[in-house]
Amino acid sequence: MELDQVLKERRSVRKFKNLNVPWYLISECLEAAIQAPSSGNVQNWRFVVVRDKESREKIAKACDEQYWMTKAPVFIVVCSDVVKIKRLFGPRGEALYAVQNCSAAIENMLLKAHELGLGTTWIGAFDESKIKEIIGIPGEVRPQGIFAIGYPEVYDEKPRREPLENFVFFEKYSQREDKERGKLIPAVDVIKRHTTKIIEKHKK
Hints:
Layout: H1 3-9, H2 23-33, E1 45-50, H3 53-62, E2 74-81, H4 82-115, E3 119-123, H5 128-135, E4 141-150, E5 177-178, E6 183-184, H6 187-203
Antiparallel strand pairs: 1-2, 2-4, 3-4, 5-6
C-alpha cells in the first residue's frame, strides 16, 4: 500500500471483530514505532502490550469508562521513561519532548497497523495514576497514550478534513500571501467557498 493511500485512508476504529491479532503483526507495528525520530535520539518510548481481558477491562474503566475498547484484543500502552530525557533537556524535555517523541512513535504504529489491515484508535483520555497501578508502571515512567488494536468490524466514514488553505501561513502567522503566487487567501473566503460548495451540492 502506498504511503499516500495509508495517510488518507487511516481512521479511528471503535468496532472490532472477535479475532486475535498474531504477535508477528503486533511486532511489526512496534518495529515501525521505534523508527520514529526522537529528541537527541533519546528513544524514551516504552511499550506495554496488554492482552489479558481483566486488565483490558480495568484499563477501559480508567479511560473514562470507554468500554468499547475491550472489543479490541490488544492494547499497547505507550509510556515515556523521563529519567534520561529530563537529565538531558531539563523540565522542557520532560514536559514537551517526551510527549512529542512518543506521539511520533504512536503515529508510526497507527499507519503501520492500517497498512497491515488492522484497525486502531489512539486514546488519550485516561487516569494516569490508575493506568500506572493496573500495569505496574514505575514512578519515573509516565503513560502517554493507549493504542487499541484489532481487526476492524466496520470502518466509519472518515471525518471531513478542512482544506489546506485553512492551516497554512507564509513567513508570519495569519499571513496568507504567498509571494511567489502573489495571492492572498483570507480564511473567511475559504470558508465561504466551502459553504457555497455544500449548498450547491444539496441543490442538485
